[in-house]
Amino acid sequence: MKLNRPTRAPHSETIVALIDVVFFLMVFFMLIGRMDATAPFELRPPMAQSARDMPAGGITLAIAADGTLALDGDDISPEDLNTELTKALARQAALRLRINAHRAAQLRHVLPYVAQAEALGLRDVVLVVTPERDE
């Protein structure tokens, strides 16, 4: 007695292997690709200078964590700051402004004063920073 085996249908090509390859290629290009926007021109960010002496001369604007201001050690309101900076600039043409902000001060408390100094004609603004210590 001879049994006839049913003929098997030919195996269709599976697409699962191709999907895996495409997935791995996608992950590879996502990892090596740049996700940030790049400038269309050469850009060199400023370098922090630490372990150097603070530049002498000029005036110091201190900004507390809550945004309170002091100019050369005396409390000052934001409204009076413009007047005092203008007076100081009239006394000394090449005036240097040092901005010493508390580490918890938000950037929105600091940047307007940099812009204000620039609008008045101050060309030398120094942001005072403290280097991180190895603890």
Shape: rod-shaped
The percentage helix is 25-40%
Q: Could you report the average pLDDT, rounded to the nearest whole number?
A: 79
Give the tally of β-strands.
5
Low-confidence stretches: none
Question: If you consult CATH, what is the topology of the domain at 59-127?
Answer: Nucleotidyltransferase, domain 5
- CATH class of the domain at 59-127 equals Alpha Beta
Sequence of strands across the biggest β-sheet? 3-2-1-4-5
SSE class: alpha/beta
Q: Span from first to last CA?
A: 88 Å
Helix run count? 3
Strand content: 15-25%
Radius of gyration: 32 Å
CATH architecture of the domain at 59-127: 2-Layer Sandwich
Largest sheet: 5 strands, mixed
SSE string: HEEEHEHE
Oligomeric form? single chain
Task: Please give the structural blueprint.
Layout: H1 16-32, E1 59-63, E2 69-71, E3 74-76, H2 78-91, E4 96-101, H3 107-120, E5 124-127
Parallel strand pairs: 1-4, 4-5
Antiparallel strand pairs: 1-2, 2-3
Tell me briefly what this model is.
The chain is α/β, with parallel strands linked by helices.
Report on the structure:
The protein has a domain at 59-127: Nucleotidyltransferase, domain 5 (2-Layer Sandwich). Helices cover 33% and strands 16% of the residues. The protein is built from three helices and five strands, in the order H-E-E-E-H-E-H-E. It has helices at residues 16-32, 78-91, 107-120, and strands at residues 59-63, 69-71, 74-76, 96-101, 124-127. A five-stranded mixed beta sheet has the order 3-2-1-4-5, with helices on one face. Strand 1 and strand 2 (69-71) form a beta hairpin. The mean pLDDT is 79.
